[in-house]
Design brief:
- This protein is α/β, with parallel strands linked by helices and about 210 residues long.
- It has a single domain, classed as 3-Layer(aba) Sandwich (Rossmann fold), CATH 3.40.50.
- Helix content is about 30%, strand content about 25%.
- It has a 7-stranded mixed beta sheet, with helices on both faces.
- Helix 3 links the parallel strand 2 and strand 3.
């Protein structure tokens, strides 16, 4: 059983907004950058959690929004919070167990997903969702000399994730995706208040539409 099934959404959101973490707002900002650049007609968000960032989507541009998560309670919260969001589809699925079996989309966004779910089957599942000529955007947490991968907060359910959390090297990911036909279009580094930083890479899946 995934440890994420034992993390209440209130704990996750409390941890991610806690002093010394403060990651939800920067994740929205990076997502907003990707959306403005890619302007996808269709979109998949891997590990949608509580729907952080959905407010950044221009539904005049993006007509299909597929939110995927391993935790059904998270999806229930998204459905309630964003009931009026047109084009929203929610899928309960473990990406580390196989592809979702859904029609590919213009943009697949994976923020802090591969650190928890790995870069084996989960990465395969992500790529299977990208249309030829579409994009995969990835947010990774960069190493910090001053903080652990999962910062210590009062949310004990999050601390259990330390056992499986593994940082991903952006250079390794870029090389791996290049071997899979994905060209790095854009990358940036976003510093965080905690002293950590995020790396964003946007990859184009080469091939005719």
């Amino acid at each position: 059983m995934s440890r994420w099934l034992r993390v209440p959404l209130a704990d996750y959101e409390g941890h991610m907004t806690a002093a010394g973490v403060e990651q939800l707002a920067p994740l929205v900002e990076l997502f907003r950058q990707v959306l403005a650049s890619a302007r996808p007609g269709s979109l998949a968000i891997l590990g949608i959690a509580g729907g952080n960032g959905l407010e950044a989507i221009d539904t005049q541009v993006t007509k299909r929004i597929l939110g995927i998560d391993i935790n059904r309670e998270y999806l229930d919260a998204v459905a309630q919070r964003h009931a009026s969001l047109p084009g929203l589809e929610l899928l309960h699925h473990d990406l580390a167990q196989g592809p979702v079996g859904q029609p590919p989309v213009d943009l697949v966004h994976a923020a802090l997903v591969f650190e928890h779910a790995g870069t084996g089957q989960c990465l395969d599942s992500a790529l299977a969702l990208v249309k030829p000529g579409g994009r995969l955007s990835v947010v990774l947490q960069l190493p910090s000399e001053t903080q652990a991968g999962v910062a210590p907060t009062g949310y004990l359910s999050l601390q259990a994730l330390k056992e499986t959390f593994q940082l991903i090297d952006p250079a390794w990911l870029t090389q791996t995706l290049a071997s899979r036909g994905c060209q790095l279009e854009y990358e940036t580094r976003h510093p965080l208040p905690s002293g950590k930083a995020f790396w964003l890479g946007v990859f184009l899946l080469l091939g005719a539409e």
